[in-house]
Amino acid sequence: MLVSWNWLNELVSLPTSTLEFADKLTMAGAEVEEINQVACKLNGVVIAKVTDISVHPTKKNLKVATLSWDEGTATCVTGAQNVKEGDIVPYAPPGAVIADGTTLGIEEFEGIKSYGMMLSADEMGLPLLSQEEGILILPPDAPLGEDAALWLGIKDTVFDVSITPNRGDLLSMVGMAREACALFPDSLLKDIKCPPIHTHPDWPVNFRGVTLKDPGCPLYGLGFAEELNVIPSPIQYRVKLALSGVRPISNVVDVTNYVMLLFGQPLHAFDFDKLPAPEITVRSSRAGERIVTLDGKEHELSEGDLLITSGGMPIGLAGVMGGANSEIDATTRRILIESAHFLPPRISTTARRLGINSEAAYRYARGVDKAKVPLALAYSLDLMNQWKCGNVFFSVIMEGDPNPKERLVPLTSKKLKTYIGVDDLTEASKVLSPLGFEASTSSPERIIFKVPSFRMDVEIEEDLIEEVARLKGYDELPARLPGKIHDSATIGAEPRAERKIRETLMARGYIELLNYSFISPKFAKDLQLPLSDNRAMPFSLANPISVEQSVLRTFLLPGMIYAICDNLRRGWRFAIRAFEIGNVFIKEGERLKEEKHVAGAIFLGKDDRSPYGDAVKDDFFTIKGDLQSLARAFGLYFDVIPGSEPFGHSGQTADVLFDGRKIGFIAKIKPSVERQLELPSPLYVFEVAFDPFLAPRAPRFGETYRYPAVYRDISLVAPENMTVKEVSSIIRELTSELVTSIRLFDVYKGKNIPEGHKSLSFTLEYRHPDRTLSDEEVDRIHNELRSQIESKGLKLR
Length: 797
Known about the structure:
Blueprint lengths: L1 E3 H7 E2 L4 H10 L3 E8 L7 E10 L7 E7 L2 E7 L9 E5 L13 E4 L2 E4 L1 E2 L29 H5 L3 E7 L10 H11 L4 E2 L20 E3 L6 E8 L8 H9 L7 H13 L3 E5 L8 E5 L5 E3 L5 E3 L5 E5 L2 E5 L3 E2 L12 E7 L2 H11 L4 H8 L5 H15 L4 E10 L6 E6 H8 L4 H8 L5 E6 L2 E6 L9 H12 L20 H15 L3 E2 L5 E2 L3 H4 L24 E2 L4 H13 L6 E13 L2 E13 L2 E2 L8 E2 L2 H14 L5 E4 L5 E11 L2 E9 L1 H7 L5 E7 L20 E10 L4 H11 L4 E10 L8 E10 L8 H15 L5 E2 L1
Parallel strand pairs: 13-16, 27-30
Antiparallel strand pairs: 1-11, 2-12, 3-11, 4-5, 4-7, 5-6, 7-10, 8-9, 14-22, 14-23, 15-22, 16-19, 17-18, 19-20, 20-21, 24-26, 25-26, 28-29, 30-31, 31-37, 32-33, 34-35, 35-36, 36-37, 38-40, 38-41, 39-40
Helix pairs in contact: 1-4, 5-6, 6-9, 7-8, 10-12, 13-16
């Protein structure tokens, strides 16, 4: 928000400098991002009258003007076509300096000398003031000879203040003046007087009234004026608007903008004669309705947008922007002025969805004081009367309850002491009083404050304490040591498990992903989940960030896959090993069940199980080994058996079991899903429940072997659908108790292996607890195994 120092001092007398004001305002929470000295170089410009003007004798596009003021006369040449005899203008004589720092002198144009120049609004330092190209024309009563910059109020300091979303009360000059008065106790807030208005309209028109059909508008007011003459506003008001970043348009429109800047209450003017019917209705839009707004853009509305209508036709987006079909123009003679209270969520949702960033929507989205609705309407009518815009009626229509609900918040010395180290309630009351907080009841240890209607962000005692702290100054609060030094906290089981999961997977080359809990509803279709799968039935959000984040995730895998796809679209072409720990949300009837899961994914990687020879691409067994290593880090064992998932490859999908119950899956994403997601290479994934990791099991220790082991290898040809676990069980069944370990070291399919089969190579470890085994003993046992193995459907290789 742009804050004019001159305008601010019209509302409050500030015994301070601009720099001190900016510093205190920033320290109190409203950061001053920039300080602009407007027209600081402008010097020596006076107000003069054009007493004569004629066309240049040889340059027909130029005019020669004679100017007079209290100290003399001068001649100057101009190319502006809007100047005529009798006009009052800003004149810069030789030696004067214009806004861009140029010092003027005497110039000659085809034999005629020009002593200085008449100035445009741009040359005065206010480009927003220019309504047409040419010289800035001042009102007839402007005092000749006066300093033009001082009389217009152009020489000013303008603060660009960043207003936080909770402080909508600061989006007005009155709100900023109130804040300044609280920051500088010696300042004095001046009263703003408004004429009385009554709610029994005596308008000379047949107007049927206002109907409120939506709770999003609890209060709606209308004023009326006729016999209007739509002309530029008084120059000083136009300067204030321009310094505040608002381009002046016409007296009627400028009234609404000026009052909005003053009180923070947006207003809107409708051309009465353009209304489809002599009535106003506030209602929700129907899906597919359309409206052309004042910026000339057509918008298609969704169901639930708040509309201002007349005769059933939309004439404005409530609190956002008016409709082009009721716009004020040069032909307007009768108007209705709207002052209303709209609920912030309704306005912010519509403005954000339609991409309209108006000053009104900006304020309504942050909350507008309901009590300002009749005040702003009365002030605007009075201002139009002062500006002689037309015949103004000080009777209004006010539909709804204009009285804000009373809010009481206590403040105790105990909590004040706890939070900021001071317990003086009397001093706290003095600090809060300039902001409008009134003490309702009080005792030595407790005061109940009545919260002003414009402070919608103050609801609890801590809010009051924050106000006291920021106004006193955080650097002024007493420094003190804590009364008790607490022992360091112990880490709970869940954070401890999360940390260990991160350490284990990162040690295996994984990086952690942090995705939103919100995903696109199309995930069920992308992963081919059937409707019978409860993961395909997510909860929808009432107020989503976007359509792509409109439902709660039911498992981690979709978010991980979308993250990988997004990185691939951005040009990533390297191996990915990623994991995520996060909450998922599953429907159980009408109830929402929240669980924590752990998921991992491998893409484009090389398997490091064969460190020698050619590198082998990652496969199903890579990610299975990583998950089993994670389980072993917790002293757990996950049983992996053939399984199925809608998105998983039929031959490379497994269920993960823990203590006999399914806790997750391992899968290679099947080709049809890969094509749908445009994945250029195979993707391997796992996802398991988090809860098994909360109870890690202590490692079991056995007696250290005293005698060396003897090793023998065996290679077997097995059906392709037979698992390694099944083959290992057969070997275990046929071998002696002296076999202490069976370890797979190679899987091969290809040349010399029958179709539909695979070769599995194992290393067997033989060991005796009491002595060293001889080669003869081991060979005998091993040969017995080889002779019996084919009886189990396996063949030696």
